[in-house]
Amino acid sequence: MQKSASHKVASFPPQVGADCRVLVLGTVPSLRSLELRQSYGHAQNLFWTFMGEMFDAGRELPYAERIRRLHARGIGIWDVYRQVERPGSLDSSIVKASEVPNAITQLLAREPAIRAIALNGGKAQQVFARRILPAIAPARREALTILALPSTSPANASIRREVKLERWRALLDFAPARARTRRRNQTSARMPPRALK
Q1: Number of domains observed in the structure of the chain
Q2: Which residues contact 186 (CB under 8 A, 6 or more apart)?
Q3: How many CB atoms sit inside 10 A of residue 103's CB?
Q4: Range of 101's domain?
Q5: Hey, what's the torsion of the CAs at 32, 68, 54, 157, to 10 degrees?
Q6: CA distance 38 to 50
Q7: Can you tell me the mean pLDDT for 115-135?
């Protein structure tokens, strides 16, 4: 019993600003993130590197300032899971029977400005499609763009960094006005909700 309890991992509260346009959903915090009390805390995770290049919210800044800058550009952060059992940090180690999803449908109901959901990696995409998307009201679902993005985790080494960043630039399409970077292959990261199966 004690061993199982030590493997329980809980999500942080949603980090969503007053005018959130894009909700980025990871799976659940890594052990390093839990230790630091910071989303995407692992030094080799590319999330904050990408946020630095797109929104001037890079890892060199204090965490609270990074979050403030993301909120100023309409970007929020949360996870698909509220709680799981997971020895270690790999998504593949999550005990399926322990999965408890976050209340994302309720958040979407409270935050009508959210126009896109960016899913960070394959596991987040699978859980969202299986546990969350079917519970979203049809009208709300139709108003959303679902972005299926490559994981920023260091465990995802099969895709080159520059390819990942190009896909992640899809977030710029939803950010409030500031200079935007032109992107190639604009449809490559975008998937309609029905494609997430």
Answers
A1: 1
A2: 170, 173
A3: 14
A4: 2-195
A5: 10
A6: 16
A7: 96
* Average pLDDT rounded to a whole number, residues 16-29: 95
Q: What is the mean pLDDT of the chain?
A: 87
Structure tokens, 40:
């995407």
Non-local (6+) Cβ contacts of 141 within 8 A are 133, 193
pLDDT at 177: 67
Strand partners, 23: 76, 117
For residue 35, the SS3 value is helix
Round to whole Å and give the CA distance between 47 and 120: 9
3-state secondary structure string, 69-133? HHHHCCEEEEECEEEEECCCCCHHHCCHHHCEECCHHHHHHHCCCCCEEEEECHHHHHHHHHHHH
Q: What pLDDT does residue 189 have? A: 45
CATH number of the CATH domain containing 9: 3.40.470.10
**Separation of alpha carbons 1 and 126, rounded Å:** 29
d(CA 102, CA 175): 24
